[in-house]
Amino acid sequence: MTTASPTASSTASSAIRTIPVELAANAYPVVIGAGGLSRLGPLIRERGFKAGTKVLLVTNPVVMEHYGAAALASLEAADLAASALVIEAGEDQKTPATVAQIHDAAFARKLERGSLIVALGGGVVGDMAGFAAATWLRGIAVVQVPTTLLAMVDAAIGGKTGVNHPGGKNLIGAFHQPRLVLIDPITLATLPEREFRAGMAEVIKYGVIGDAGLFAQLEAAGPIDSIGAVGPELLQTLLERSAAAKAQVVAADEREGGLRAILNYGHTLGHVVETLCGYGTWLHGEAVAIGMAAAGAIAVEMGLWSGAEQARQLALIEAAGLPVRWPALEPQAVLACLQGDKKVRDCRVRFVLPTAIGSVQIRDDVTAEIVQLALAAA
Ligand code: NAD
Ligand code: GLY
After folding, report:
1. What predicted TM-score, i.e. pTM, was given to this entire model?
2. In terms of domains, do 181 and 275 share one?
3. Which residue among 95, 131, 284 is best mutated to probe the pocket of ligand 1, counting the most ligand atoms within 8 A of its Cβ?
4. Quick check: CB of 263 below 6 Å from ligand 2?
């Protein structure tokens, strides 16, 4: 059983804030602030990359159209030898074949050990560009510049990289920490609202697993289902607190030996929803929202947290415009899918369950009967 309460922390400097990811080796900053994209080149130089360093900017067509020119201009103005590679990057393209395209570009452009890959995009681009960097020449540097809310608060921080296998999501991958994460909230202006809401699921997750203050702030904000509803101040706050929460967990447990598993809150059951409803039916964040509601129902069933706390969780998820209802799925298929989860240890499924707003436990003693009862109620 593990309990954790990560808290937000950051060092201030005008509008741009820096959250350190304090790893013993490979520590790096998460830099957050409106307009930050224009500082991409100088920030990379500050991280020790010399003038003339080759930089491969990996992005997808939509993000290239909106932010490619600004990113390249900043890199070039900082005397970095930048070029772009645009890949097709939907979830269905998150494959070894697409990573091979990045490797081909690395070869063609003669990337060396001291060269750098910059991932500009959502979690799909970040995971693949990170994995390409982890594997090219046995590992070159990567900088993550996330442009979706989900990638800003979760995927870009922490060093998990990889691609999907026909047998399951993210089965092929490597830990490869970035040298810098640069978050410019202005890039969210063009993000489709459904994608924004999906990212809010991960923000709510940080509230439930460790940051009761963040949870309360989100509750007090009323509807939080669009960037307009959230507003720039709360947006900056939730980016900082989410990054700080993730940084703290990753620093304590880089390779998911224990504590880091709390970041999977809502994901075990969310994964079942994604798999059994068919990939593409629900966005990842939407499935996580359903998974958090379901994990809360299991926790109520086990007497770990109250109906009142579950009601608060459900209300906040709904305020973010996210789904909470467990879909009509065949119970035996759900149990079989749970057994196939990456988080199964010694054939026992490990659930992250809430015990209070801001506190969770990892439990491997949830019976099939409890799962079925809770999901029927959810
Ligand atoms: P995504 O990368 O597919 O992006 C969602 C959509 O938004 C795409 O169509 C993309 O083109 C578009 N887009 C991105 N930024 C935009 C912008 N600023 N303006 C307009 N459109 C924009 O999805 P995602 O939710 O960012 O990431 C999901 C992926 O992240 C999954 O593959 C998941 O496995 C992975 N993930 C990884 C980690 C990790 O720790 N590495 C954590 C969570 C999720
Ligand atoms: N997104 C879960 C993790 O980074 O561990």
Report:
1. 0.94
2. no
3. 284
4. yes
